[in-house]
Amino acid sequence: MKNFEDILRSLPDSPGVYIMKDKSDEIIYVGKAISLKKRVRQYFQSNKNQGLKVSSMVKQIHDFEYILVENEVEALVLEANLIKNNRPKYNILLRDDKQYPYIKVTVNERYPRVLKTRLVIKDGAKYYGPFPSANAVNEAIEIFHSIYPIRNCKLNLENKETKFRPCLNYHIGRCLGPCLGNVDEEIYNKMIDEILKFLNQKDDSLITNLEEKMIISANNYKFEEAAQFRDQVLALRTLHEKQRVDSINSLEQDVIAMARGVEEVIVQVFFIREGKILGREHYIMEDSYVEDRGEILSSFLKQFYIGSTYIPKEILLEEDIEDRKTMELWLGELKGSKVSVLSPKRGEKAELINMVKENAIEMLNKYGDKFLRKHRENLKGLEELQFLLQLEDRPDRIEAFDISNISGAGAVGSMVVFEKGEAKKSDYRRFRIRSTRTSDDYKSMEEVLRRRFTRGMDENGNAGFSLFPDLIMIDGGKGQVNRIVKLLDNIGVDIPVCGLVKDESHKTRGLIYNNEEITPSRDSFSHKLMYKIQEEAHRFAISYHRSLRSKDMFKSELDDIPLIGEKRKVALLDHFRTISNIKRASIEELKAVEGMNIKSANSIFNHFRKKEEE
């Protein structure tokens, strides 16, 4: 550890955020302080009263920096963002990043739509939720569309004079076709009002009508039809199912309590809206070091609400937190109105917290061993990899790359990320190969790795690319690995690279590293981890390739004709209705289409004549 006395003496007595780094310049801890001078100095004083986390962290500090801010709220926001983006080793980290779905009714549009969304914005639409069950939301929206012929297209219908060609939903009677411009807005909006009444829980006639249909179908021995109505009723009831909490007022509340295991914390959150429990969810936080309970809850609040689409008026905590006032100011700014953070010790709200606490303990008892066992197996796998490859440090962040193509067509690359043995899907990336149209996996892999690391070295930083891995895994043997090692050396990246090789059954066999094959036992933790990483990289590449092929299948034959853009393509289809009619058309008939000239007509005519000759 360096001697920081001179730097510590010059620290300002001002609010800010401090960033601790290790010898590899990796951020290992981020904290905030009202006074940087007082707070940062505490780390380097006598360690007699320091906890395990602090004493362990201080030994790793090779350098630190700080950022001055205007006030405590700015410090809190900056600290939360730095933790979220860098996931420092010694900060308490929230593993789950869940956003619950809402039902959005676009009353801000002419001819409103009913959609599922996970993002709430101030756009004039009405939002209902959040709902814990995404399946129930999907089913409910499908029911609305089956009962009410409302649109689900993205067409801009604000201009009353604009008309569009109707889609399939209009032809099969699932949409009135407002795109045609002749639908009575009053009739349409009456259907939307009925949906809003149901979502506002002011009218349950939707459920009643479905129940009546279910009974009629059952009485007529149409049991499959009755079962469909039954499932629809259950889905709609799920949206309304909110367990009532006696004697609690109608405030919007999130109630938060926690239970601690050996190496993990389970935080339980109950979502209460209008005095009813809308749903609940548990979250896991890494807790490898002894922490104050209030500090854990404070870390949870910052990481949970910084990306949240919804913030309630009141948050109940089982423990008071040191920065409660600052937290209230920050949450209030996010919500746009006052937010209270309370930790009541008696009364009805305290009883509610106790109920949530009991659920957290029950969740820990039920799943804690499973979480801990999985976490330990992942760490053992990483430690085995460190030993097998003779690495200086445990490879906590691994990036794996794979290429997918079919006979060289539409090659794509995938990058998957694993942190401490768990997939970190928010950091996954996809690449469309540009450098080659042939089946050249070597060249394709080089392109993917070059793009990934040159973006990461961009001085402005690049979201998702600025954090480098401890180990790179690629799908390939010695030749592939050596090409990538040479590439990284040329662009100035010093990260170990190994290849994942498969056996005759196309299953993970071992690793290629430093031109040697390393084959761990199939029942070892490292082999299980390698297999998981390789399968995920392959799955991600294949899924991307399939989605691109699927899109290509729906391209029109008109897309490849010179001088024919989107407007002319639409005009041709409106005029001739089918591609077959366009193929048979004469030049004079093609010229008669709106927006067509002699050159474009000749281009179409010659294109299809050439096709016939081929």
What does the model show?
By secondary structure, this protein is α+β, with helices and mostly antiparallel strands. The chain folds into five domains: about 5-85, GIY-YIG endonuclease, CATH 3.40.1440; about 100-205, no CATH class; about 255-370, Nucleotidyltransferase, domain 5 (2-Layer Sandwich); about 395-550, UvrC, RNAse H endonuclease domain (Nucleotidyltransferase, domain 5); about 555-614, Orthogonal Bundle (DNA polymerase, domain 1), CATH 1.10.150.20. Helices cover about 45% and strands about 20% of the residues. It has 19 helices and 20 strands. Strands 13, 14, 15, 16, 17, 18, 19 and 20 form an eight-stranded mixed β-sheet that branches. A hairpin with a 5-residue loop joins strand 18 (about 495-500) and strand 19. Helix 12 (about 350-390) crosses helix 15 (about 525-555). The termini are far apart.
